[in-house]
Amino acid sequence: MPTTDVLLDRTVIGLIKRIGARAVCDYGCGDGALLQRIDRITGQRLQLTGIDYFSSRKRGERPQSTGTMRFIDRASRECRRLVGQGGVFDLIVSAFTLHHFRRPLEELAVLVKLLKPRGTLFLADLEFANDSGDQAAKNLFSFLSEEFHAFQGAYHRHHYTRDEALPLFAAAGLAVRSSRSITVDFPEHERKEETGRALRNLARMRAANAGTANGHQRAYFDQRFAQMTKLVSRHGIDYSRLFTITATR
Ligand SMILES: C[S@@+](CC[C@H](N)C(=O)[O-])C[C@H]1O[C@@H](n2cnc3c(N)ncnc32)[C@H](O)[C@@H]1O
């Protein structure tokens, strides 16, 4: 996501310093870019762990472990062992992941286990806001993706509002320390990049839909994909609205 740097500069580095974190995890770290920047900024003094579903990525696209950074597959025995052991991290950062969690309470329970007592969880995700054409395009695209993936037996939830996300934390036994809704800079080149990515995703879903055996379903989604491609091309996608939640175990 384009806004990871903003989160890093505004919040994560400050949190690391404030709580004196030594062991830091990025849960759902994607390509590991955030950890790599933390490693550089902090002069390789922290133990950094990235967790994600790496086995579904091509070999060349998986981040590589180094002396201070290790990357663990979410589906691996190593990850299960880490969760079983518990109390591992002073700080867990998780950016743009909540809307991917099929069973969010179970996933938050894993994060609670991975935190040391009084450890901190910092979560950020896109906010469901709907007050402009490009916000509406983002949300409608997100709903369509969720709908199509549900029919494919996969998962992608639409975005939460901050008010919807907050009770999940309390239910998982976390104490919310602060939460914020923020609007970050979303420059034109990032808008173009994200809009291009959304259009490529739409093309991929459309191609997958062409192989769907159920004719009614195929016709329905084909029409929706055509409509959505027009909408996204016209308005672009806006990822400038975020919420952040900081909580402790
Ligand atoms: C939108 S990407 C964000 C990646 C990265 N955090 C960033 O800010 O660029 C969401 C990531 O969460 C990962 N993910 C989804 N569900 C997950 C889970 N249950 N445990 C760990 N990672 C998960 C996905 O594989 C994906 O890499």
Give a nutshell description of this structure.
With 249 residues, the protein is of the alpha/beta class. Helix content is 47%, strand content 21%. Helix 1 crosses helix 2 and helix 3 crosses helix 4.
From the 3D coordinates, which CATH architecture would you assign?
3-Layer(aba) Sandwich
For the largest beta-sheet, the strand count, sense and barrel status come to:
7 strands, mixed
Percent helix range: 40-55%
CATH class: Alpha Beta
Bound molecules: S-adenosylmethionine
Lateral arrangement of strands in the main beta sheet: 3-2-1-4-5-7-6
- Measure the end-to-end span: 27 Å
Considering the protein shown, what is the CATH homologous superfamily?
Vaccinia Virus protein VP39
- Class from helix and strand fractions: alpha/beta
Number of helices: 8
Q: What is the global morphology?
A: globular
Order of helices and strands: HEHEEHEHEHHEHHE
Count of individual beta strands: 7
Unreliable spans: none
Which band does the percent of strand residues land in? Answer: 15-25%
Give the mean pLDDT. 93
Descriptors:
globular; alpha/beta; 249 residues; seven-stranded mixed sheet; binds S-adenosylmethionine; Rossmann fold
Protein described:
The protein is α/β, with parallel strands linked by helices and 249 residues long. It has a single domain (4-248), classed as 3-Layer(aba) Sandwich (Rossmann fold). 47% of the residues lie in helices and 21% in strands. It has 8 helices and 7 strands; from the N terminus they run αβαββαβαβααβααβ. The protein has helices spanning 4-19, 33-41, 77-85, 104-114, 133-151, 162-171, 188-210, 215-235, and strands at residues 23-27, 47-52, 69-73, 89-95, 115-126, 175-183, 241-248. It has a 7-stranded mixed sheet with strand order 3-2-1-4-5-7-6, sandwiched between helices. Helix 4 (104-114) links the parallel strand 4 (89-95) and strand 5. The two termini are 27 Å apart. Residues 1, 4, 27-30, 51-53, 74, 95-97, 100-101, 107 line the site of S-adenosylmethionine.
